[in-house]
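Problem 3 from the worked examples.
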Amino acid sequence: MRLIPVYTWNKTLVNIGNRRRAFFGQPWAQGVILLACVVVAMLLANLPWTHHFYFNLLETDIAITVHSPEGNGFIFPAGMTVEKFINDILMVVFFFTVGMEIKREIVCGELSTPKKAIMPVIAAFGGVMVPALIYVLVNHGTAASSGWGIPTATDIAFAVGILSILGDKVPVSLKVFLTALAIADDLIAILVVALFYGGKINFLLLGLALLLILLVLLMYRRGEKRPWFYFIPAIGVWILFYYSGIHATMSGVVMAFLIPMKPRFTKNYYYRKRKICREKLSEYDSIHEEGGFPNTPQRQVLRELSKTSRDCIGLSYRLEHALAPWVNFVIMPIFALANAGVRITDPSYFNVFQFSPELGSVSMGIFLGLLVGKPLGITLASFIAVKAKVAAMPAGATWKMLFAVACLGGIGFTMSIFVDTLSFGDQPEQVTLMLRNMGKVAVLLGSLCAGILGSILAILTHKRENKI
């Protein structure tokens, strides 16, 4: 038997590790993984030997039950299943990171000044209003009418991923425009969920949540920057939101806006601390230990310097950086696995133009909203803003290319599926399940077609403009 030297195995493992890091570093990596999870979820939901396990797993109760000696029980959180754990707890982390991203862009990014923000914000409103209008026109007065918020969202991960694949075919200014638009769109979608897709409101619990948020705000105003002073109240706010009827994920957004961006220590403090630590390191260099540098006192000095360096970066930036890989490559794939699995019991699910006088057509409303409404609303709102001289056209962009990029705004996916899971709750259970399943299929088809259409138009427009 031929033996492979150890160094060959080590080299192979290093190459695999490098390729893995290179893959996860690509802006399109999240989109690829999410698509794979969608395919897996659809297979699990429809294969005869897996669909029972798949749906039973999602409906499994995971709440904590405490029994008293008298036989009385206490369940926390009430009604928690695997699916609700994913949508009401894991997705809180997703919304938390989205909230921090929005805050960062408002404070010092693409939405930080009226001049920067006006164009993408106006375009985002157009990209929300027109799809919602199309959906309402299709489904007014039917059982599907409450799903108007589904086609209003843009999935930033997929849109930016496709733009990165297109490379220099799309001007950098339009890439920035679509990114800022998607961020503004996320903020609008969050408001839509908070205002229109919550449950029956318990105003007492909501008032307690607002009081707790106010206390955190006071700490924020006083300059508190230690993580635990925000993390512990965040748990309380989530619990109060969960039981008050406001969707629990909104607690993540609220707390994200309260996380301080300013660092705990200033630049001058860091330089002074670094100087002191360097002097101590030199002083302790005379202490010889068997392990060499750093010796025991030097390790303590380096730990102090490391802690100071960490606190010279704002808590919001640190959390966003730390959570991003978990959100992009763990939470979102789990969300896709749990929510994209649709049991196709009727081929008519794929007929997006099927209409019923009683049920309406959730598929048609979503599909047309994403594929037609999004690009039309974004382009029309941008055109009005430019012609009214309220905003300026992105540098180096043409209307044809802007329309192509606007088509990519029709990739709803994550937020659209999330809103779909909250919709149609006022209908009988079987009708609700059917409408939600049809809505998910329509979101997938609409997002796929919008991505393909936007990519083709961008490539063709680039070729024509280069010939000219």
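Problem 4, a separate protein:
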Amino acid sequence: MGLFGSNIKLLRKRRGRTQDDVAVALEMKRSTLSGYENEVAQPGLEALVAFSRYFNVSIDTLVKTDLSTLAESQLSQLERGYDVFLTGSKLRVLATTVDRENEENIELVSEKAKAGYRAGFADPEFIKVLPTFQMPFLSKQKKYRSFQVSGDSMLPIPDGAWVTCEFVQNWQLIRNRHAYVVHTLDDGVVFKVVENLIRKEGKLRLHSLNPAYEPYDVHVNDVREVWKFVNYISNEMPDPDLPHQELARQVNRLRDDVEALKKGEGR
């Protein structure tokens, strides 16, 4: 198992995590992790499973493949979940469902289903139990999925709304200041306005429409899927922009007052 230590060290450093970070996440002593990385200790089956889940890389890959010999593009695909030992192919095929006419469904990922989606997004058995529907006006050549929004970070799109999105295969094509559902390793499914910093910094900057929320960065190694926003469905009417309207009224009153003063001075 000589490759295991160097592989987990490589994956950890590429993700920008310290030994302490990984040890805490896996609930083990830092000295234990150090022993694995320096190949002075051999992990048991439970530890192998834990590392496989943490890095989203199969045990076979961790113990049999020298990751240091892979090209950058291969490593990036591996870190994004495209593992040949997990999927049986060089690129992960998006798990999807079709209707009786063999046309792809739009699966619904409710707020309750998000926890399961976090782990089962690539599992056809999980995806096929999700509710589905069709939108006839959307392209049949593209893959869509609907996610339920939670919270107020993307107001005026309200809590509980359903956002339908198009699957993005090539992340280099993510457009700045457009809305996307981003499936992340740490935060699960989030709906944000995205700033694409992949070429310069290897990350995405996620912004909320609600200015009360600060933007934050996600490294591409921690991103599982990206879905581009297409439309949303809600049974709530958006709230009127009352503060803006009140400000406009105050400006109009002030303008009227200034006009009245000018007329008074001209007398």
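Solution to problem 4. Confidence is low (pLDDT under 50) at residues 86-93. The first strand starts at residue 106 and ends at 109.
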